[in-house]
Amino acid sequence: MLSVYLSGEIHTDWREQIIAGAADLNVSFSAPVTDHAASDDCGVEILGAEPNKFWHDRKGALLNSMRTRKGLEEADIVVVRFGDQYKQWNAAFDAGYAAALGKSLIILHGADHAHALKEVDAAAQAVAETPEQVVQMLRYILEGTLPG
After folding, report:
1. From CA 103, how far away is CA 128, in angstroms rounded?
2. Model confidence over 68-88: pLDDT tens digits?
3. How would you classify the pairing of strands 126-128 and 104-108?
4. Which of 46, 84, 88, 132 stands 20 to 30 A from 115 (CA)?
5. What percent of the chain shows pLDDT beyond 70?
6. pTM greater than 0.90 (yes/no)
7. What is the C-alpha to C-alpha distance for residues 119 and 107, in angstroms, rounded to an integer?
8. Which domains are seen in the chain, by residue range?
9. Which pLDDT belongs to residue 87?
10. Rounded CA gap, 140 and 94, in Å?
């Protein structure tokens, strides 16, 4: 069983595309919590309200960091998606942490981000532009077969 952690932007269905495309492969997927409100508010929902937004965010960030760390450390491959709409500082951090752990790393972004992410891309074993390419890579890694 290949363990793949899907990190990065949460505003599109790229994770679902990869999971559906790899349904016939021996792959297990994990990911951060992609419900934005739940991710933001997990700390105060569990540990109590904070009147100061800094401490509100800090409680959530610390709790989420434990989930992220577990997912990254247990993964065989980490896929990090950089979307078009927002700056994903967390995605860049996850890519760096995965690289520091020596994890196999696939970066996923459009051509328009190639220059901005050149250092992140250089740390990866592969850079893809589409979820379909990621599925094709996973198929090749597991089965040694090429598309078509």
Report:
1. 17
2. 999 999 999 999 999 987 778
3. parallel
4. 132
5. 100
6. yes
7. 11
8. 2-32+72-143 (3.40.50.450)
9. 74
10. 24
